[in-house]
């Protein structure tokens, strides 16, 4: 009985004393790495991504990155504007999508655009709504 009590005491003490062994408390290493990248490094990564997926040169990839970055910033600003109603916000986002697709259409072929623009946004630009 004495051995059982000693074993139980050590067993409980062992599992309650190691707080650092909990996997849920550590920071996510992927997120930490992404946070440590500078904005120029992030831009370089995005440009290389566009070069690879679209098979274009650095100039076109940089133009695509600029259009996409401007679009994302505009959508973020529009979405965070609490003075607008839902319908106004949706209409604004639809117009931003159409503008982005127009700008990318001047730079890329339709096949290349299919690679980076979601099908729902391509259809929204054409005025086709899915039910």
Automatic annotation (TrEMBL):
The keyword Signal applies. The lineage of its organism: Bacteria, Pseudomonadati, Bacteroidota, Sphingobacteriia, Sphingobacteriales. It comes from the Bacteria. Keywords: Signal. Residues 1-23 form the signal peptide. It comes from Arcticibacter tournemirensis. This is Periplasmic heavy metal sensor.
């Amino acid at each position: 009985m004495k051995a059982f009590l000693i074993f139980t005491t050590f067993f409980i003490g062992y599992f309650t004393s190691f707080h650092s062994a909990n996997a849920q408390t550590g920071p996510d290493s992927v997120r930490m790495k992404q946070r440590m990248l500078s904005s120029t490094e992030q831009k370089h990564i995005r440009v290389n991504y566009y070069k690879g997926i679209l098979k274009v040169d650095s100039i076109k990839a940089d133009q695509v990155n600029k259009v996409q970055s401007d679009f994302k910033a505009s959508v973020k600003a529009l979405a965070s504007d609490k003075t607008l109603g839902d319908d106004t916000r949706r209409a604004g986002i639809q117009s931003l999508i159409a503008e982005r697709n127009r700008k990318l259409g001047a730079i890329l072929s339709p096949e290349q655009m299919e690679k980076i623009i979601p099908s729902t946004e391509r259809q929204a630009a054409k005025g086709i709504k899915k039910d």
